[in-house]
Specification:
Length: about 200
Amino acid sequence: MPKLVILDLGGVLYNIDFDKTKRALMELRGYNGCDVAFGVETQSDVFVQYDRGDLTTVEFRDELRSMYGFTCTDAEIDRAWCAILDNGLFPFAPDVVHSIRLRSASGPADRLVIFSNISELHYLDAKDRCSPVFSLVDDVYLSYTLRLRKPDPLSFLAICEKEGMLPSQATLIDDSLANCTAAKHLGMTTIHVIDPYALL
C-alpha cells in the first residue's frame, strides 16, 4: 500500500469551473478581445507564473491589464479571477477524503496530503470553504508558496522529500492527465480522476 497519498484539490474535491473565470474576464471593462487561454491542461504563461508564485498579486493584475486591456478596478479583476471557485467543494468531498484515508492506511507512517496548483487570490478566496477537507489531511501544499507547480516533476519530488518518502512510495490522485503522466515517470502510482464521484 502507498505510504504517501498526494490528493489534488480542484476537480477532485473542489468543483472548479474554468469557463466561469474565462467568461468573467472577457466581460470586464476594457477587454480587448485577446484569447483567454485558461483550462485544466493548458494555460497562458501569466496564469502559470501566478500559480507558481513568480508574480505577486499586484504584478498579476498589471499583467492582465497589459494583456487584455482591462480598465476596471482591482476588486473587479479579483472577482472575475475567482469566479472559477463559485461552486465550492463537491458535497461528497469530506467522504472522499475519509474513504481514501481508510483504503490507504496501512501503518503509522502513512500520510495523506493535498497538493494544489493555486494562486494567492484563489487560496484566499477558497480557504474557508476548503476547511472541511483541509482539516482531514496531514498537510496542504500550495504551488504559489511551494514555488513549484504541477506537472513540473520537481514539484512532486519536493513534496516527497518534505514528507520523507520516495516517489515509489507515493500515489497521486489528480484530474489532470499531464500531472499524472509526469508523476508516473518518477515512479509514482497515479489515479487519473475523470469522475470525482467514482472516488467514493
